[in-house]
Specification:
leucine-rich repeat, alpha/beta, 33 strands, 16% strand, WH-like_DNA-bd_sf, repeat, 13-stranded parallel beta sheet, LRR_dom_sf, Rossmann fold, 7-stranded parallel beta sheet, Arc Repressor Mutant, subunit A
C-alpha cells in the first residue's frame, strides 16, 4: 500500500511526528473564525458523493445521513493539527458525538494497520492486544464499534491519494449513525479529492496582528516585551518574514529566546532559516517531510528553485522550460504542467493572486529549498556573499544590481556551473566580461541575461555546446553572432524586446529548437523553417504571393502545441495544401486559417475562387485533438466536411468570421463549448446545427452582424442546459415566429438589434437565478420589464438598457441586492419606473445612470 507515496523500495523506518487529540494547551491565536467554521460543519455536515465518481469536484448536497468528510489543507507548519485538536476538544463537539477517534497516520501504514489504530482509539486502547491481523476481522470489529453511534474520526497528516484505498478504509464506518464525520488534515489537495471531501478549509498564515501576539508568547513568555524595545523592533521584522506560519513562530521564537541579545537577534534577522539549529518538530523538518515523498524528478525541480530570490514570480512556461533544459523532466506533452500542478497541490508553490500563469514560493518553502540544495544552488544577493559560494555549485543566480566587474569575473572559477542567471545587472556593460566567462563555463545549459546591460553577445558563445536555454530579452543587443547557430542543443531562444537589426541566416540549423521568442513572426526571421521539427510555441505563418515561404514547410512540424496561424491562404494552390499535413499535428491546440480580407471585397474574384478555397480547406483537416478553430475571410460556400459531428472530438471553440459566402452551417462537433459567428453577411440558417441533443455542453453562443440570418432556433436554447453566455447582435431579419427561451444556467445575456427576437422579452427572463449581466440595446419590441420578472434576477450585477423606444415600465429594481451598475438611457417612453431605484438596496450598490 502506497499510503504515504513511498517509492516502493524497502527503506529503514524513519521517525514521524506523531500527534494526539490533546492540544497540550497550545497557543491558538487568530483562528476563531476557522474554528467556528469547522465546528459548524461538523455539527451540521454535508455528505459528498462517491469520490470514485469525481472526488472533491463532485456536487455537494446537504445530508443528514451517511458519513461527511471534511478536509483542512495547508502547507506544513500552518497549524492544521492544532486547529483539529482545538475543534476535537471543543465542548460542543464532545457533546454532539457519541464516539470520537483520533489517528495520526505514521509513515507507510497499510489499511489493516490504520484500521487497528482506529479501533484502539475507539476503545481507548482496550483492544490493543486483540491479536487480530486479518483486515476482514478488524473491519467487523470496527463496524460493531461505530454501529448506531454518531462518531467523529480525525485522520491527521493524511497522505493517501488513492480513492480506492480510502474507500476500503472507511467501508465499516458507513454503519455509523447519520451525522457522523471524518476530519482529514493534509498538505495535499489530492488527498481531499481521494477522500471525496464535501467541504474544504484551506488554512493560510495567521493575520499579522495575531501572529505577532503568538510570536511574542514564544519569545518573551510571561516577560513584558516593553522592556526590550530594540528586540521588539527586530522581532517584528523577523515575524514579518515568517508569513504567518505558527510552526515557524515557535521554531524561530525558541531560537531567539535562547539568547536575548540584540547581536544574536540581528544575526538571526540577517540569516535564513536554513542556518538555524532545527530540532525535531522544527519548521524545516515539518516542511522536509513533504519533500521526502516527492518523486525524484520533482525533488530536482523543487530544489532548483533555490536559485531564485524570495518573492520571485515564476512564469509557468519559463520555469518548465528551465526544468526541461536541465534534464529534470521530459519535454513530451504536458508533463511539465503536470509536474508544476503536482508541486502546487502539495503547497510547494502558490498561485500568484493576479495571474493564472504565474507562481510564487512561500518564504519558508524557499528556505527549505536552499537548505536542501546548499552545495548545488546559490542565490547571490550581495557581493559580500561571494566567498560563501561553494566550489561544488551547479546553479547560480546573481540578483544584485551592482557587482564590480572584477568580482563578476570571479564566477569563472565555478567550472561546474550548469545554470547562470544574471537577473537585473543593468548598471554596467557586461559584454567583455561575458567573453572571458564563456571560455571557462563550458558546461552551461541555462543562461539568462534578461534586462542586463549587454550590448553585444560574445562570439565564443558558440563554444557553449551544451547550452539549451538562452534568454537575452530586454537587453540592448543589436546583432546576434553567427556562432549562435552552432548551438545544436539549443531548445529555447528568447530575444523579445531586443533591438536586433538582423538575424543570422543559419538559425534554421537549430534543429532542437523548441521555442523561439522573437518580436516579429518567425517566418520573417528565417527563410525556411522546415528543419525546425521540434518547434512547439505559437507560430504565425504568412504565405507570400511570390517567392518565399511555402505551406509545405509545415509538413514535419508535428510538435507544435499552442497556436498555428496561417495567413494569406489565397496564395496556396490545391496541390500544395495537402503537403502541410495538418492531421499529423497531434499536440496543436489552436488553428487559425485566414485568407486576405482585401480579396473578399471583390465579389467577382471571390465567386471564381470559392470552389478552390473549399478544396483547399478540406486539405487542412486537423488532428482530432484540436481544441480551437478559427476561419477568417473564408470564401467557400459550405463549411468543411471535417467539421461534422464525430470528426473533431476535442473541439471546444469554433469561430467563423467574415465568411461572406457561407449560407448555412449544417453540423457541429458535439464537444463544442463556444461558438462565435461574426460578420457572415450571406448566412441564412443555423437551424440544422444548433440542436440541444448534439450540443449538450455548449456554454457560449455569439451571433453578430449576420444581416441575412433568418433561421436561428432560439426556441430550443432552453435545451442547452450548460449555456452561460448568449449574444445576438445586428441580425435584423430574425422573425417573430420563434420565441427565445433560456436555461437557468445563463450568466450573461446581450440582445442588440436582433430583429423580432426582442419580442421574447421579458418572458425569456423567467427563472434565470444566475444571470449576472443583462444588456438590451436597440430592441424596439420591448414594452416592459415588470417587477415580477426583474425581482427574480437576484444575482444581477449589471443591467444596461439603451435605445429601447417602446419601453414604458421597469420595476422590481429594489429587490436586486447584488446590482452594482445600472444604465437606462435613450428610452423616451419610459414613465413607469421603480420609485426605489435610486435608493441603496445592497452593499454592492454602485454606479447608476438614468436618462430619458
Amino acid at each position: 500500500m502506497d499510503w504515504l507515496l513511498t517509492t516502493g523500495k524497502a527503506t529503514p523506518r524513519r521517525a514521524f511526528r506523531e500527534t494526539s487529540s490533546f492540544a497540550g494547551r497550545p497557543l491558538v491565536l487568530g483562528r476563531d473564525r476557522e474554528r467556528e467554521d469547522v465546528v459548524r460543519l461538523l455539527l451540521n455536515p454535508v455528505r459528498a458523493h462517491d469520490p470514485g465518481g469525481g472526488g472533491g469536484s463532485a456536487k455537494r448536497r446537504k445530508s443528514r445521513d451517511g458519513v461527511a468528510v471534511l478536509a483542512i489543507l495547508g502547507m506544513g507548519g500552518v497549524g492544521k493539527t492544532t486547529l483539529a485538536q482545538v475543534v476535537y476538544n471543543d465542548q460542543r463537539v464532545q457533546d454532539h458525538f457519541d464516539l470520537r477517534m483520533w489517528v495520526c497516520l505514521p509513515e507507510s501504514p497499510d489499511v489493516t494497520l490504520v484500521t487497528k489504530v482506529i479501533i484502539e482509539s475507539a476503545t481507548k486502547g482496550a483492544a490493543a492486544q486483540t491479536g487480530l491481523a486479518n483486515l476482514d476481522s478488524l473491519q467487523v470489529v470496527l463496524r460493531d464499534l461505530v454501529s448506531s453511534k454518531r462518531f467523529l474520526l480525525v485522520l491527521d497528516n493524511a497522505w493517501c491519494e488513492d480513492s480506492v484505498e480510502f474507500q476500503t478504509l472507511v467501508a465499516p464506518l458507513k454503519f455509523g449513525y447519520p451525522g457522523s464525520a471524518i476530519l482529514v488534515t493534509s498538505r495535499s489537495c489530492k488527498v481531499a479529492d481521494a477522500t471525496g471531501a464535501a467541504e474544504l478549509l484551506c488554512l493560510n498564515g495567521l493575520p499579522e496582528e495575531a501572529y505577532w501576539e503568538l510570536f511574542k508568547q514564544y519569545v518573551f513568555g510571561n516577560e513584558d516585551p516593553a522592556g526590550h524595545p530594540e528586540l521588539v523592533a527586530i522581532g517584528k521584522k523577523i515575524a514579518h518574514r515568517l508569513k504567518g506560519s505558527p510552526l515557524a513562530a515557535k521554531t524561530v521564537g525558541v531560537a531567539l529566546s535562547s539568547d536575548m541579545s540584540t547581536k544574536h537577534w540581528s544575526i538571526v534577522m540577517a540569516s535564513g532559516l536554513w542556518e538555524l539549529d532545527q530540532g525535531a518538530g522544527g519548521i524545516l523538518p515539518a516542511l522536509r517531510l513533504s519533500y521526502q515523498y516527492l518523486p525524484a524528478h520533482l525533488k530536482q525541480c523543487f530544489i532548483f528553485c533555490a536559485i531564485f530570490p524570495k518573492g520571485y514570480i515564476f512564469g509557468k512556461d519559463t520555469l518548465i522550460d528551465m526544468w526541461i533544459a536541465e534534464g529534470f523532466i521530459s519535454p513530451q506533452g504536458d508533463f511539465g504542467s503536470i509536474c508544476l500542478k503536482e508541486l502546487l497541490s502539495r503547497s510547494f508553490f502558490q498561485q500568484h493572486m493576479f495571474s493564472d500563469s504565474c507562481y510564487v514560493m512561500h518564504d519558508l518553502m524557499s528556505d527549505l529549498a536552499q537548505s536542501l540544495s546548499i552545495d548545488e544552488c546559490f542565490c547571490l544577493t550581495d557581493e559580500r556573499c561571494l566567498p560563501k559560494i561553494p566550489s561544488t555549485i551547479r546553479h547560480l543566480s546573481v540578483c544584485t544590481k551592482h557587482l564590480e566587474l572584477s568580482k563578476f569575473l570571479e564566477l569563472g572559477r565555478y567550472t561546474k556551473l550548469r545554470s547562470l542567471l544574471i537577473l537585473g545587472m543593468s548598471g554596467q556593460d557586461l559584454s567583455c566580461s561575458l567573453d572571458i566567462l564563456f571560455d571557462k563555463l563550458s558546461n552551461i545549459r541555462v543562461l539568462v541575461l534578461r534586462g542586463c546591460a549587454v550590448k553585444e553577445l560574445p562570439r565564443n558563445i558558440g563554444n557553449l555546446k551544451l547550452l539549451r536555454y538562452i534568454d537575452i530579452s530586454y537587453t540592448k543587443i543589436q546583432c546576434l553572432p553567427d556562432s549562435i547557430c552552432q548551438l545544436n542543443n539549443l531548445q529555447i531562444l528568447n530575444v523579445l524586446n531586443v533591438p536586433l537589426k538582423n538575424h543570422p541566416k543559419g538559425l534554421t540549423r537549430l534543429v532542437n529548437l523548441r521555442k523561439c521568442y522573437v518580436n516579429e513572426p518567425i517566418t520573417s526571421v528565417m527563410s525556411n523553417i522546415s528543419n525546425l521539427t521540434s518547434l512547439e510555441n505559437s507560430l504565425v505563418f504568412e504565405i507570400p504571393k511570390g517567392q518565399g515561404h511555402r505551406i509545405a514547410e509545415l509538413k514535419d512540424m508535428t510538435q507544435l502545441t499552442e497556436t498555428l496561424h496561417v495567413t494569406n491562404l489565397e496564395n496556396v494552390v490545391k496541390d500544395d495544401a495537402l503537403k502541410a499535413k495538418m492531421s499529423t499535428k497531434a499536440h496543436l491546440q489552436r488553428l487559425i486559417l485566414e485568407w486576405s480580407s482585401s480579396k473578399t471585397g471583390n465579389a467577382e474574384v471571390s465567386n471564381a475562387k470559392y470552389s478552390q478555397e473549399s478544396i483547399i480547406v478540406e486539405s487542412f483537416e486537423p488532428h482530432p485533438n484540436l481544441e480551437s478553430l478559427k476561419l477568417k475571410h473564408y470564401s467557400g460556400i459550405p463549411t468543411p466536411s471535417w467539421l461534422q459531428a464525430g470528426k473533431l472530438c476535442c473541439l471546444c471553440e469554433l469561430s467563423l468570421s467574415n465568411c461572406h459566402f457561407l449560407t448555412e452551417v449544417t453540423s457541429l462537433p458535439s464537444s463544442l463549448r463556444r461558438l462565435h459567428i461574426i460578420r457572415c453577411r450571406n448566412l441564412r440558417s443555423l437551424d440544422e446545427c444548433l440542436q440541444a441533443q448534439s450540443l449538450q455542453g455548449i456554454t457560449e453562443i455569439t451571433v453578430m452582424n449576420c444581416s441575412k440570418l433568418a433561421l436561428l432556433p432560439v426556441e430550443r436554447f432552453r435545451g442547452f442546459a450548460s449555456l452561460r453566455v448568449l449574444e445576438i447582435q445586428n441580425c435584423p431579419e430574425l422573425p417573430p415566429t420563434r420565441k427565445l427561451t433560456l436555461p437557468p444556467s445563463m450568466v450573461e445575456l446581450l440582445m442588440r438589434s436582433c430583429g423580432h427576437v426582442d419580442a421574447s422579452l421579458p418572458s425569456c427572463l423567467h427563472n434565470l437565478p444566475s444571470l449576472v449581466s443583462l444588456i438590451i440595446y436597440n430592441c424596439p419590441n420591448l414594452l416592459s420589464l415588470p417587477a415580477e420578472i426583474v425581482s427574480q434576477l437576484r444575482s444581477l450585477r449589471g443591467m444596461y438598457v439603451d435605445n429601447c423606444s417602446s419601453l414604458r415600465s421597469l420595476g422590481g429594481l429594489h429587490h436586486l441586492s447584488s446590482l452594482i451598475n445600472l444604465h437606462i438611457v435613450n428610452c423616451p417612453r419610459l414613465t413607469d419606473l421603480d420609485p426605489l431605484m435610486f435608493l441603496d438596496v445592497g452593499e454592492g450598490q454602485g454606479y447608476r445612470s438614468w436618462s430619458a
